[in-house]
Amino acid sequence: MTGSQGLLGVKDIARLAGVSSATVSRVLQGTTRVSDETRTRVEKVMAEVGYVPNALASAMRTRRTGIIGVVTGQLTNPWYPLMLETLAKNLAEQDLSMNVWVSDGEVTDESAIKAIRSRAIDGVIFLTALRNSKALPAALEYGLPLVLVNRKIDDVESDHVVSDNIAGGRSVAQYFLKHGRTNVAVIGGWATVSTGRDRRQGFISEFAKAGIELDKVQAPTTEFSYSAGLHFGRAILRDKKPQAVFCTTDVIAFGVMDAAKELGLRVPEDLWVVGYDDIPMASWGALSLTSVRQSMDMMATTALKLLMSRIANPNSPFVQQVFDIELIVRNSTGFAPIS
Length: 339
Description:
Layout: H1 10-17, H2 21-29, H3 36-49, H4 55-62, E1 67-72, H5 79-93, E2 97-102, H6 110-117, E3 123-126, H7 135-141, E4 146-149, E5 159-163, H8 165-178, E6 184-187, H9 194-209, H10 226-239, E7 244-247, H11 250-262, E8 272-277, E9 290-293, H12 296-312, E10 320-323, E11 326-328
Parallel strand pairs: 1-2, 1-3, 3-4, 4-5, 5-10, 6-7, 7-8, 8-9
Antiparallel strand pairs: 9-11
Helix pairs in contact: 1-2, 1-3, 5-12, 8-9, 10-11
Protein backbone atom coordinates (compact mmCIF):
# COMPACT_ATOMS: atom_id res chain seq x y z
CA MET A 1 0.00 0.00 0.00
CA THR A 2 3.01 2.28 0.17
CA GLY A 3 2.96 5.21 -2.20
CA SER A 4 -0.81 5.67 -1.94
CA GLN A 5 -0.60 8.32 0.78
CA GLY A 6 -1.82 11.05 -1.56
CA LEU A 7 -5.21 9.30 -1.80
CA LEU A 8 -5.62 8.64 1.90
CA GLY A 9 -6.95 10.85 4.68
CA VAL A 10 -7.62 10.54 8.39
CA LYS A 11 -10.85 8.59 7.77
CA ASP A 12 -8.95 6.04 5.65
CA ILE A 13 -6.28 5.59 8.33
CA ALA A 14 -9.03 5.14 10.93
CA ARG A 15 -10.74 2.47 8.83
CA LEU A 16 -7.51 0.56 8.21
CA ALA A 17 -6.54 0.70 11.89
CA GLY A 18 -10.03 -0.15 13.10
CA VAL A 19 -10.40 3.01 15.20
CA SER A 20 -12.34 6.25 15.02
CA SER A 21 -11.22 9.36 13.12
CA ALA A 22 -11.03 11.16 16.46
CA THR A 23 -8.54 8.59 17.73
CA VAL A 24 -6.32 9.07 14.67
CA SER A 25 -6.45 12.85 15.24
CA ARG A 26 -5.40 12.38 18.85
CA VAL A 27 -2.47 10.24 17.74
CA LEU A 28 -1.40 12.92 15.25
CA GLN A 29 -1.68 15.60 17.95
CA GLY A 30 0.46 13.55 20.34
CA THR A 31 -2.10 13.63 23.16
CA THR A 32 -1.95 11.15 26.02
CA ARG A 33 -5.62 10.16 25.69
CA VAL A 34 -4.72 7.14 23.56
CA SER A 35 -3.51 3.75 24.83
CA ASP A 36 -0.02 2.66 23.83
CA GLU A 37 -1.48 -0.35 21.98
CA THR A 38 -3.85 1.81 19.92
CA ARG A 39 -1.19 4.42 19.20
CA THR A 40 1.19 1.72 17.98
CA ARG A 41 -1.49 0.24 15.70
CA VAL A 42 -2.34 3.60 14.16
CA GLU A 43 1.32 4.54 13.67
CA LYS A 44 2.01 1.16 12.06
CA VAL A 45 -0.80 1.72 9.54
CA MET A 46 0.47 5.23 8.73
CA ALA A 47 3.99 3.87 8.23
CA GLU A 48 2.77 1.06 5.97
CA VAL A 49 0.85 3.39 3.65
CA GLY A 50 3.43 6.18 3.80
CA TYR A 51 0.90 8.60 5.27
CA VAL A 52 2.17 12.13 5.99
CA PRO A 53 -0.24 14.53 7.75
CA ASN A 54 -1.24 17.61 5.79
CA ALA A 55 0.78 20.40 7.43
CA LEU A 56 -1.64 23.15 6.44
CA ALA A 57 -4.65 21.25 7.74
CA SER A 58 -2.81 20.44 10.95
CA ALA A 59 -1.86 24.10 11.45
CA MET A 60 -5.46 25.19 10.93
CA ARG A 61 -6.70 22.58 13.40
CA THR A 62 -4.12 23.14 16.16
CA ARG A 63 -3.28 26.79 15.43
CA ARG A 64 0.36 25.68 15.43
CA THR A 65 2.69 25.63 12.44
CA GLY A 66 5.43 23.56 14.05
CA ILE A 67 7.91 26.20 12.87
CA ILE A 68 10.14 28.28 15.13
CA GLY A 69 11.76 31.47 13.84
CA VAL A 70 15.33 32.36 14.73
CA VAL A 71 16.86 35.81 14.18
CA THR A 72 20.63 35.51 14.22
CA GLY A 73 23.64 37.77 13.81
CA GLN A 74 26.13 37.58 10.96
CA LEU A 75 27.22 33.98 10.41
CA THR A 76 30.84 35.06 9.94
CA ASN A 77 30.91 35.09 13.76
CA PRO A 78 31.24 31.36 14.61
CA TRP A 79 29.18 31.80 17.79
CA TYR A 80 25.94 32.06 15.81
CA PRO A 81 26.33 28.88 13.69
CA LEU A 82 27.16 26.97 16.86
CA MET A 83 23.97 28.17 18.53
CA LEU A 84 21.94 27.40 15.39
CA GLU A 85 23.37 23.89 15.27
CA THR A 86 22.23 23.17 18.84
CA LEU A 87 18.80 24.69 18.23
CA ALA A 88 18.33 22.67 15.03
CA LYS A 89 19.20 19.44 16.83
CA ASN A 90 16.76 20.13 19.67
CA LEU A 91 14.00 21.17 17.27
CA ALA A 92 14.44 18.01 15.18
CA GLU A 93 14.08 15.90 18.32
CA GLN A 94 10.68 17.53 18.86
CA ASP A 95 9.66 17.16 15.20
CA LEU A 96 9.75 20.93 14.75
CA SER A 97 11.26 23.04 11.97
CA MET A 98 13.29 26.25 11.99
CA ASN A 99 13.25 29.35 9.80
CA VAL A 100 16.37 31.51 10.12
CA TRP A 101 16.77 35.19 9.33
CA VAL A 102 20.17 36.88 9.45
CA SER A 103 20.19 40.38 10.91
CA ASP A 104 22.97 42.90 10.43
CA GLY A 105 22.08 44.48 13.79
CA GLU A 106 20.24 47.35 12.11
CA VAL A 107 17.79 46.01 9.58
CA THR A 108 16.25 42.57 9.86
CA ASP A 109 15.05 40.76 6.76
CA GLU A 110 11.53 41.95 5.99
CA SER A 111 10.46 38.34 5.49
CA ALA A 112 10.89 37.78 9.24
CA ILE A 113 8.44 40.58 9.96
CA LYS A 114 5.97 39.14 7.43
CA ALA A 115 6.24 35.74 9.11
CA ILE A 116 5.59 37.32 12.50
CA ARG A 117 2.59 39.31 11.32
CA SER A 118 1.04 36.39 9.47
CA ARG A 119 1.67 33.95 12.32
CA ALA A 120 3.63 31.71 9.96
CA ILE A 121 5.79 30.78 12.95
CA ASP A 122 4.78 29.73 16.47
CA GLY A 123 7.44 31.79 18.21
CA VAL A 124 10.83 33.39 17.70
CA ILE A 125 14.24 33.16 19.32
CA PHE A 126 16.43 36.24 18.99
CA LEU A 127 20.14 35.36 19.09
CA THR A 128 20.80 39.01 18.40
CA ALA A 129 18.58 41.95 19.30
CA LEU A 130 19.00 45.72 19.32
CA ARG A 131 16.61 48.56 20.10
CA ASN A 132 16.52 49.52 16.42
CA SER A 133 15.73 45.98 15.28
CA LYS A 134 12.50 45.89 13.29
CA ALA A 135 11.60 42.27 14.03
CA LEU A 136 11.57 42.59 17.80
CA PRO A 137 8.94 45.38 17.98
CA ALA A 138 6.84 43.44 15.46
CA ALA A 139 6.93 40.31 17.63
CA LEU A 140 6.02 42.33 20.72
CA GLU A 141 3.22 44.18 18.91
CA TYR A 142 1.63 40.97 17.63
CA GLY A 143 2.06 39.14 20.93
CA LEU A 144 4.23 36.42 19.42
CA PRO A 145 6.03 34.25 22.01
CA LEU A 146 9.72 35.15 22.03
CA VAL A 147 12.96 34.60 23.91
CA LEU A 148 16.05 36.81 23.89
CA VAL A 149 19.32 34.87 23.97
CA ASN A 150 22.81 36.19 24.73
CA ARG A 151 21.68 39.82 24.53
CA LYS A 152 18.94 41.44 26.57
CA ILE A 153 17.19 44.77 26.31
CA ASP A 154 16.52 46.20 29.75
CA ASP A 155 13.08 47.71 29.15
CA VAL A 156 11.72 44.78 27.09
CA GLU A 157 9.68 42.35 29.17
CA SER A 158 10.39 38.85 27.88
CA ASP A 159 12.02 35.56 28.71
CA HIS A 160 15.76 35.80 28.24
CA VAL A 161 18.82 33.57 28.50
CA VAL A 162 22.25 35.09 29.04
CA SER A 163 25.58 34.37 30.67
CA ASP A 164 26.84 36.51 33.54
CA ASN A 165 28.73 38.94 31.32
CA ILE A 166 29.67 41.36 34.10
CA ALA A 167 31.20 38.50 36.08
CA GLY A 168 33.01 37.38 32.92
CA GLY A 169 34.69 40.76 32.44
CA ARG A 170 35.46 40.96 36.14
CA SER A 171 37.13 37.54 36.13
CA VAL A 172 39.52 38.60 33.34
CA ALA A 173 40.45 41.80 35.22
CA GLN A 174 41.13 39.83 38.41
CA TYR A 175 43.26 37.39 36.43
CA PHE A 176 45.35 40.19 34.91
CA LEU A 177 45.76 41.94 38.28
CA LYS A 178 46.80 38.73 40.01
CA HIS A 179 49.67 38.37 37.55
CA GLY A 180 50.74 42.01 37.68
CA ARG A 181 49.29 42.99 34.30
CA THR A 182 48.23 46.57 35.06
CA ASN A 183 48.89 48.24 31.69
CA VAL A 184 45.92 46.78 29.86
CA ALA A 185 43.26 47.42 27.22
CA VAL A 186 39.75 46.18 26.48
CA ILE A 187 38.35 46.08 22.94
CA GLY A 188 34.75 45.80 21.77
CA GLY A 189 31.20 46.34 22.85
CA TRP A 190 28.85 49.13 21.82
CA ALA A 191 26.96 50.78 24.69
CA THR A 192 23.72 49.70 23.01
CA VAL A 193 24.66 45.99 23.03
CA SER A 194 24.28 44.37 26.45
CA THR A 195 26.90 41.68 25.95
CA GLY A 196 29.87 43.89 25.12
CA ARG A 197 28.67 46.67 27.44
CA ASP A 198 28.44 44.35 30.46
CA ARG A 199 31.73 42.59 29.75
CA ARG A 200 33.49 45.95 29.48
CA GLN A 201 31.76 47.21 32.60
CA GLY A 202 32.88 44.23 34.67
CA PHE A 203 36.45 44.56 33.43
CA ILE A 204 36.79 48.35 33.76
CA SER A 205 35.09 48.53 37.17
CA GLU A 206 37.42 45.90 38.61
CA PHE A 207 40.46 47.89 37.51
CA ALA A 208 38.88 51.06 38.91
CA LYS A 209 38.58 49.32 42.28
CA ALA A 210 42.35 48.74 42.06
CA GLY A 211 42.86 52.45 41.37
CA ILE A 212 43.58 52.01 37.66
CA GLU A 213 41.53 54.04 35.17
CA LEU A 214 41.45 53.16 31.47
CA ASP A 215 41.28 55.98 28.92
CA LYS A 216 39.31 55.91 25.65
CA VAL A 217 42.29 54.70 23.65
CA GLN A 218 42.64 51.73 26.01
CA ALA A 219 38.93 50.92 25.87
CA PRO A 220 37.54 51.47 22.35
CA THR A 221 34.01 50.38 21.49
CA THR A 222 33.54 48.57 18.21
CA GLU A 223 31.71 45.77 16.43
CA PHE A 224 32.34 42.12 17.17
CA SER A 225 34.58 41.23 14.22
CA TYR A 226 38.05 40.05 13.31
CA SER A 227 38.70 43.22 11.28
CA ALA A 228 37.84 45.40 14.30
CA GLY A 229 40.31 43.43 16.42
CA LEU A 230 43.00 43.81 13.78
CA HIS A 231 42.38 47.56 13.37
CA PHE A 232 42.20 48.52 17.04
CA GLY A 233 44.86 45.99 17.95
CA ARG A 234 47.34 47.72 15.66
CA ALA A 235 46.51 51.16 17.10
CA ILE A 236 46.59 50.17 20.77
CA LEU A 237 49.68 48.00 20.54
CA ARG A 238 51.58 50.85 18.85
CA ASP A 239 50.38 53.68 21.11
CA LYS A 240 49.85 52.11 24.53
CA LYS A 241 52.06 49.02 24.41
CA PRO A 242 49.83 47.15 26.88
CA GLN A 243 50.88 44.05 28.74
CA ALA A 244 47.48 42.41 28.19
CA VAL A 245 44.34 42.92 26.11
CA PHE A 246 40.84 41.69 26.92
CA CYS A 247 38.63 41.23 23.84
CA THR A 248 34.88 40.99 24.32
CA THR A 249 34.61 38.18 21.73
CA ASP A 250 37.03 35.54 20.49
CA VAL A 251 36.90 36.81 16.90
CA ILE A 252 38.15 40.22 18.08
CA ALA A 253 40.93 38.44 19.96
CA PHE A 254 42.03 36.61 16.80
CA GLY A 255 42.40 40.01 15.11
CA VAL A 256 44.48 41.35 18.00
CA MET A 257 46.74 38.29 17.92
CA ASP A 258 47.39 38.85 14.20
CA ALA A 259 48.05 42.55 14.84
CA ALA A 260 50.63 41.58 17.45
CA LYS A 261 52.31 39.23 14.99
CA GLU A 262 52.48 42.02 12.38
CA LEU A 263 54.19 44.29 14.91
CA GLY A 264 56.72 41.66 15.94
CA LEU A 265 55.15 41.04 19.35
CA ARG A 266 55.09 37.54 20.76
CA VAL A 267 52.01 36.10 22.45
CA PRO A 268 52.26 35.38 25.36
CA GLU A 269 55.86 36.49 25.97
CA ASP A 270 55.29 40.16 25.07
CA LEU A 271 51.51 40.34 25.20
CA TRP A 272 48.63 38.46 26.82
CA VAL A 273 45.35 38.17 24.92
CA VAL A 274 42.03 36.95 26.34
CA GLY A 275 38.79 36.47 24.41
CA TYR A 276 35.17 35.72 25.27
CA ASP A 277 32.82 32.87 24.19
CA ASP A 278 35.37 30.03 24.00
CA ILE A 279 34.30 28.97 20.52
CA PRO A 280 35.98 25.72 19.31
CA MET A 281 38.61 27.64 17.29
CA ALA A 282 39.95 29.08 20.57
CA SER A 283 41.22 25.62 21.54
CA TRP A 284 43.07 25.03 18.26
CA GLY A 285 46.78 24.59 18.85
CA ALA A 286 47.80 27.40 16.49
CA LEU A 287 45.60 29.86 18.41
CA SER A 288 45.34 28.43 21.94
CA LEU A 289 43.35 31.42 23.14
CA THR A 290 42.51 31.96 26.79
CA SER A 291 38.79 32.73 26.80
CA VAL A 292 35.73 33.17 28.96
CA ARG A 293 33.48 30.19 28.30
CA GLN A 294 29.73 30.55 27.87
CA SER A 295 27.51 27.48 28.17
CA MET A 296 26.34 27.70 24.54
CA ASP A 297 24.64 24.30 24.46
CA MET A 298 22.80 24.99 27.71
CA MET A 299 21.81 28.48 26.60
CA ALA A 300 20.35 27.22 23.31
CA THR A 301 18.57 24.27 24.94
CA THR A 302 17.15 26.46 27.71
CA ALA A 303 15.98 29.10 25.22
CA LEU A 304 13.99 26.52 23.28
CA LYS A 305 12.46 25.10 26.47
CA LEU A 306 11.42 28.58 27.57
CA LEU A 307 9.92 29.34 24.17
CA MET A 308 7.89 26.13 24.05
CA SER A 309 6.69 26.82 27.59
CA ARG A 310 5.73 30.37 26.58
CA ILE A 311 3.79 29.06 23.58
CA ALA A 312 1.88 26.65 25.82
CA ASN A 313 1.42 29.15 28.67
CA PRO A 314 1.46 32.67 27.20
CA ASN A 315 0.47 34.39 30.46
CA SER A 316 3.03 32.75 32.76
CA PRO A 317 5.64 34.95 34.55
CA PHE A 318 8.72 35.83 32.52
CA VAL A 319 11.91 33.88 33.24
CA GLN A 320 15.42 35.33 33.27
CA GLN A 321 18.03 32.57 33.13
CA VAL A 322 21.62 33.65 33.83
CA PHE A 323 24.37 31.07 33.36
CA ASP A 324 27.73 31.12 35.12
CA ILE A 325 30.91 31.65 33.14
CA GLU A 326 34.33 30.00 33.36
CA LEU A 327 37.75 31.36 32.42
CA ILE A 328 39.58 28.76 30.32
CA VAL A 329 43.34 29.32 30.42
CA ARG A 330 45.51 28.52 27.40
CA ASN A 331 48.78 29.57 25.80
CA SER A 332 47.77 33.16 24.91
CA THR A 333 48.35 33.92 28.59
CA GLY A 334 51.17 31.42 29.04
CA PHE A 335 48.89 28.98 30.87
CA ALA A 336 49.29 31.19 33.95
CA PRO A 337 47.08 29.75 36.73
CA ILE A 338 43.86 31.47 37.78
CA SER A 339 44.57 30.97 41.48
